[in-house]
Amino acid sequence: MGVSAKRRPKSQPTTLVLPPQYVDDVISRIDRMFPEMSIHLSRPNGTSAMLLVTLGKVLKVIVVMRSLFIDRTIVKGYNENVYTEGGKLDIWSKSSYQVFQKVTDHATTALLHYQLPQMPDVVVRSFMTWLRSYIKLFQAPCQRCGKFLQDGLPPTWRDFRTLEAFHDTCRQ
């Protein structure tokens, strides 16, 4: 038993604390990269960053970050309220619309896909590039079936590499 313990590699720390100014600079660069996307950064707790990403007139995304690591995302419709009664970003309530609930689920999956702890700025940029592909959420047909709607929903899945649109049932 002692031998296997010696061979086991030491676990690397999974959280990298970066200075808030560095995080602000990365977010500012990403904001400039995508003119159809606006990013508003706030720090309600001092160090943790919260982003309100507005993608054209299509949707709004609340991104909760710890340093440059994305913890949680909530996608809502462009006209939906993203603030609590106290004026803070509402990180708990889901969208009233099924289409944005689906996109929230897909965004959570994307967070698991875009994992590269050594380069968190690349992860955030990749995630935002993926998120930007939703600018044509209601205009892009499914790449497999060619339809705009299936079961009353547009193609809500975006391929992680090609960013092509698919319905949930068509992506397999």
How would you summarize this macromolecular structure in one to three sentences?
The chain has helices at 2-7, 20-33, 98-113, 120-132; strands spanning 37-42, 49-55, 59-66, 69-77, 157-158, 165-166.
| Helix amount | 25-40%
Number of helices: 4
Structural class: alpha+beta
Query: Quick one: biggest sheet?
Result: 4 strands, antiparallel
First-last Cα distance? 44 Å
Instruction: Count the beta strands.
Output: 6
Gyration radius, rounded:
18 Å
Ranges where pLDDT stays below 50 over 5 or more residues in a row are 10-14
Q: What characteristic shape results from the CA principal axes?
A: globular
Bin the strand percentage: 15-25%
Placed side by side, the strands forming the largest sheet appear as 1-2-3-4
Mean pLDDT: 91
Order of helices and strands: HHEEEEHHEE
